[in-house]
């Protein structure tokens, strides 16, 4: 059980880190503070490559100790990256608030000191980013025979068994189910040629698939001429 939770946590953390890097907020922040935006882009490409082989690594770690060690190193690097980007965000916010305050009554000497602080911050963070990038690149270049795009079983059609065995045994999802039913049945779009998609997101083990199955097997689903889930 601990292994499954650890795998879900790593996958979620890696996805979250990629999301931070490509967000407009961080891209703008890097450009405005003269942090290394080119390095940020390269790191994103490296993380996407690591993300592509993650599932295969999780499968192979059971029989290959080297892969397990690789996953442990990746986990440490991803967590360090998450901490680093939190540090960047916090420091940038602090500097912004400080700058807004100082510019109201600041002397030339104070403004010069603040500018020097920004330069020192950029130098320190760029160094940490370079170190993190090199760690990730090292993991990416390991020749462990990991394959990209390998995933578990994929649901392609109507299941042969019952979608949900006993709805009465599922607790705590009534409100979520009602909200999603409303979104599915709410006729808020005038363009009938478009297909609406509702994503249920979250870490593994939260019951996303179970919730989707509850909706899929519900009586209201018969209102729609075509219904599918992924």
UniProtKB/TrEMBL annotation:
Pfam families: NB-ARC, Rx_N. It comes from the Eukaryota. InterPro entries: NB-ARC, P-loop_NTPase, Rx_N. The keyword Nucleotide-binding applies. GO terms for biological process: defense response. Residues 34-102 form the Disease resistance N-terminal domain. One of its GO terms (molecular function) is ADP binding. Keywords: Nucleotide-binding, Plant defense, Repeat. Residues 191-218 form the NB-ARC domain. PANTHER family: DISEASE RESISTANCE PROTEIN RGA2-LIKE, TRANSLOCASE OF INNER MITOCHONDRIAL MEMBRANE 13 HOMOLOG. This is Uncharacterized protein. The lineage of its organism: Eukaryota, Viridiplantae, Streptophyta, Embryophyta, Tracheophyta.
């Amino acid at each position: 059980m601990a292994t499954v939770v650890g795998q879900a946590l790593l996958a979620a953390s890696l996805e979250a880190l990629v999301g931070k890097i490509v967000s407009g907020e961080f891209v703008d922040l890097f450009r405005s503070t003269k942090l290394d935006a080119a390095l940020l882009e390269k790191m994103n490409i490296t993380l996407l490559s690591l993300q592509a082989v993650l599932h295969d690594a999780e499968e192979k770690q059971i029989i290959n100790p080297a892969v397990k060690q690789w996953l442990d190193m990746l986990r440490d690097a991803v967590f360090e990256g998450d901490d680093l980007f939190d540090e960047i965000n916090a420091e940038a916010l602090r500097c912004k608030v400080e700058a807004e305050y100082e510019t109201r009554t600041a002397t030339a000497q104070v403004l010069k000191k603040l500018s020097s602080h920004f330069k020192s911050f950029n130098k320190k963070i760029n160094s940490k980013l370079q170190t993190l990038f090199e760690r990730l690149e090292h993991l990416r270049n390991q020749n462990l025979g990991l394959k990209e795009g390998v995933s578990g079983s994929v649901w392609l059609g109507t299941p042969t068994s019952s979608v949900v065995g006993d709805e009465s045994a599922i607790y705590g999802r009534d409100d979520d189910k009602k909200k999603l039913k409303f979104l599915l049945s709410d006729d808020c779009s005038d363009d009938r040629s478009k297909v609406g998609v509702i994503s249920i997101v979250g870490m593994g083990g939260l019951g996303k698939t179970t919730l989707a199955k509850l909706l899929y097997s519900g009586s209201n689903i018969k209102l729609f001429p075509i219904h599918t889930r992924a």
